[in-house]
Amino acid sequence: MAYIEIKARKYIDAALAQQIIDKGTIVGVLTTGKISTPAKKLFDEAHIAWAENIPEKRFMNVDGLEVL
Question: For the whole prediction, is pTM greater than 0.85?
Answer without folding.
Answer: no
